[in-house]
Amino acid sequence: MEKSPIRPTDDEARILARRLMADARHGALAFTHPQSGAPFISRIALGLSPDGTPMSLLSTLALHTLALRRSGACALLLGEPPAKGDALAFPRLSLSARAEFAPRRHHGALREHWLKTHPKAKLYVDFADFGFVLFHPTGAALNGGFGKAWELGPEDLA
User: Fold this and answer.
1) pTM
2) Looking at domain 6-80+89-157, what is its CATH homologous superfamily?
3) Secondary structure of the chain: what % helix, strand, coil (to 5)?
């Protein structure tokens, strides 16, 4: 019987996954293209809401916003390698999620929180076409570098 390359989920994995989420200022967002139905990907700004849920500030003019409104199913890739070295040797988190558009009445509290880590967004955060999206994790695959792989559930990421 072959040994699984996936390690049992432990505190090392939980801490690393949560750090990758907390440190992320952008990520790759995967979604289903609303016209073709093909997989598609976009880079978005990313941060955590006050309760630790991954979130972004998105424009209604963006293709990914239309796609997420049609189906909230999506995925995020987080983790930025340093300028030097093999990118595959550095940790990254593939996060499956369900997107939820925050009601406009919550915009003020999310706005203040967002601007603490994304101060340049002050230029457009109040534009009428921008709103906040929360990405509720449904599961994740964590690669901690060569030979370090874990699968995590939503409870491991909270």
Assistant:
1) 0.94
2) Electron Transport, Fmn-binding Protein; Chain A (2.30.110.10)
3) 30, 40, 30
